[in-house]
Specification:
254 residues; alpha/beta; Rossmann fold; 9 helices; 8 strands; globular; Asp/Glu/hydantoin racemase; amino-acid racemase activity
Length: 254
């Protein structure tokens, strides 16, 4: 089994964190291909940045999905997830959806621990779009600038644990989601210090991606996730044009 794991942010340090946690979650025989967005921002906090990250993830996936069995979108908020499901012939799993589903299998209400205050609006909208708003106990987030996104665990680890403890004590969380690719691996490190289960989106996504491959779903020929109609494209990479427009190279750009 081969999985393509995409970091929709441009931070190579964050990709290394994702990879370290992803490799702890793979079965024997599962191979990983790691990819970092070729353009965009260091970490996604806003709706606009999520749109850019989604486009970057689509471009990477279009160019690299061949010979892989599934794709993982490794950013909380799942930029580009549903679009990728619509155009790719293989399963696509996102960190957020995977973590939310896993959280709801372990408790009635969950809280999200995040790396910035600004990120909360986008997270709430994403959680609501997945249909889990009523299960959300709270989002608690750091409230100071991040000096280096790849070192947030070392720099802010104790504050993140304190936020998690407050989410349980004050907000009634049964499960905690330590959100965002920069926190990959933190749940595994601090789980013994917390009074309820703590989930890592990378871990959840890797396990679910492998399960999806095992399920061997057929590509839909109907419904809203069927392949898009053929149409002309302009300004896209050849690989993305072939997926989005279903056009042979000779007619692209018309």
């Amino acid at each position: 089994m081969k999985l393509l794991v995409i970091n929709p942010n441009i931070s190579a340090d964050v990709t290394r964190l994702i990879e370290a946690e992803a490799r702890r979650s793979t079965r024997p025989g599962t191979e990983l291909t790691m990819a970092t967005a070729p353009f965009g921002v260091a970490y996604i906090e806003t709706r606009a940045e999520a749109q850019i990250g989604g486009y970057a993830a689509m471009q990477v996936a279009a160019e690299a999905h061949a010979e892989h069995d599934a794709v993982v979108v490794a950013a909380f908020g799942d930029p580009g997830l549903t679009a990728l499901r619509e155009i790719l012939p293989i399963p696509v799993v996102g960190m957020t959806e995977a973590a939310l589903v896993s959280a709801c299998q372990q408790g009635s209400r969950f809280s999200v621990i995040a790396i910035s205050q600004r990120i909360q609006a986008w997270y709430r909208e994403t959680i609501a779009a997945y249909g889990f708003a009523e299960r959300l106990a709270s989002i608690r987030a750091l409230d100071e600038p991040l000096a280096h996104i790849g070192h947030v665990q070392e720099d802010q680890g104790e504050r993140l644990v304190a936020l998690a403890e407050r989410a349980v004590a004050d907000d009634g969380a049964d499960v905690l989601i330590l959100a965002g690719a920069p926190l990959a691996g933190l749940a595994r490190t601090v789980a013994h210090r917390l009074p309820v289960p703590a989930l890592d989106g990378v871990t959840c996504a890797l396990h679910q991606a492998q399960a999806m491959v095992d399920l061997a779903p057929t590509a839909p020929s109907g419904g809203s996730f069927a392949a898009p109609p053929t149409k002309d494209c302009r300004g896209l990479t050849d690989a993305l044009s072939r997926l989005v427009g279903r056009q042979p190279l000779a007619t692209q750009g018309a």
